[in-house]
């Protein structure tokens, strides 16, 4: 039975850039993010799981998981991703997660 993933992909978030946004800065703590990443890195190392850091400029949220088209006008408040090209409608975070899972734009931590 397969009990662990082969790899985990996380986003390489531009935390300092996000801290400059007054709407986001309250929700984000730089310190906590790096702590989490450090812990995840250690766990992955221990269990032999490849930790992938997606390219900072990879548009995981704006890209349609089904057809690959990019929705430039996606707002932070849009919780559901609706593709104007192929009609794909899914939860915003699920769409982004599937893109991260499948992306080839990453480096191994
Ligand atoms: Zn689409």
At a glance:
The chain is α+β, with helices and mostly antiparallel strands and 109 residues long.
Labels describing this entry:
single chain, 109 residues, alpha+beta, 3-stranded mixed sheet, two-stranded antiparallel ribbon, globular, binds zinc ion
Folded structure, characterized:
With 109 residues, the chain is of the alpha+beta class. It has 4 helices and 5 strands, in the order E-H-H-H-E-E-E-H-E. The chain has helices at residues 15-19, 22-25, 30-47, 92-102, and strands at residues 7-10, 50-54, 80-82, 89-91, 106-108. A 3-stranded mixed β-sheet has the order 1-2-5, with helices on one face. Strand 3 and strand 4 (89-91) form a beta hairpin. The chain is globular. The model has no long low-confidence stretch (mean pLDDT 90). The structure holds zinc ion (ZN).
Q: Order of strands side by side in the largest beta sheet?
A: 1-2-5
Distance between the termini: 26 Å
Beta-strand segment tally:
5
Hey, roughly how much beta strand do the residues contain? 15-25%
Residues in helix, % = 25-40%
How many helices? The count is: 4
State the shape: globular
Global mean pLDDT = 90
SS-based structural class? alpha+beta
Poorly predicted segments: none
* SSE string: EHHHEEEHE
User: Any ligands, ions or cofactors bound here, and which?
Assistant: zinc ion
In terms of topology, how is this protein built?
Blueprint: E1 7-10, H1 15-19, H2 22-25, H3 30-47, E2 50-54, E3 80-82, E4 89-91, H4 92-102, E5 106-108
Parallel strand pairs: 1-2
Antiparallel strand pairs: 2-5, 3-4
């Amino acid at each position: 039975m397969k009990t662990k993933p082969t790899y985990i992909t996380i986003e390489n978030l531009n935390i300092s850039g996000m801290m400059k946004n007054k709407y986001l800065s309250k929700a984000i703590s730089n310190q906590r993010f790096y702590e989490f990443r450090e812990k995840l890195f250690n766990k992955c190392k221990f269990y032999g799981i490849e930790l992938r850091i997606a390219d900072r400029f990879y548009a995981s949220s704006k890209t349609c998981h089904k057809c690959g088209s990019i929705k430039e006008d996606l707002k932070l408040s849009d919780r559901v991703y609706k593709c104007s090209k192929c009609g794909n409608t899914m939860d915003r975070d699920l769409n982004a997660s599937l893109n991260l899972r499948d992306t080839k734009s990453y480096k191994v931590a």
